[in-house]
Amino acid sequence: MTLLRIEALSKSFDGVKAVDDVSFSLEAGELLALIGPNGAGKSTCFNMINGQLKPTSGSIRFDDQELAGKRPRDIWRAGVGRTFQIAATFNSMTVLENVQMALLSFERRVFNFLGRIDSWRKEEALALLELVGMAEHAHRSCAVLAYGDVKRVELAIALANRPKLLLMDEPTAGMAPEERNALMALTARLAKDQKIGVLFTEHSMDVVFGYADRLIVLARGRLIAQGNAETIRNDARVREVYLGGVR
Length: 247
Ligand code: ADP
Ligand code: MG
What we know:
With 247 residues, the protein is α/β, with parallel strands linked by helices. It has 9 helices and 10 strands.
């Protein structure tokens, strides 16, 4: 099932085309990697899909709705989650409390009662932490977590919103190779199990080729190639503008 269909998406900043006539689609349960050199327009693409940026033109069909130009909150409500959205309070709460907050927020409750969060959706929050392998850290403060573990909590927080589409812009930045692989393996498993479509950017080609079902390549705002790892590895244009010596 096609979950996301991007058509002729463009974004200009002061007349400069950061994203230029890009079209692609993403299926439920699919891990799609968006790769390309720095400045290629990857983050701009992400930010149009999540509503942080308004497209100059083009369409973003998601689950039979048009998302182009909608507000971030409405897009989030429609079922588009993203990691890297740590709340300012993240470090002042425990792992469990953070996930409980995310569940609360999913239920669109007004939470001005931090003191009483204790009992709220505890089982559900623990189940989410179990899913990402963080249940045993539930009662630790987020401030003391290792970097890779913070990423797992972020994933649990994103899942609390029951996303159909998960956007991950450089999810493994700053992680050691082993942690990268662990996080992507976990993401891939969750995507398959829960039929979540995942769009991610990533600099490590090992990770991209290891986990992406399909790749799309941007260069100077244009989509220059798409296909599976094999196709992309052997694409002359991609090798020229991006992969260089990577085999
Ligand atoms: P990537 O994520 O692939 O590195 P970006 O999407 O961040 O690329 O950037 C694409 C191009 O758009 C770059 O040339 C960048 O300088 C420009 N750009 C991105 N955001 C803005 C902005 N808010 N204002 C002006 N130019 C921007
Ligand atoms: Mg970027």
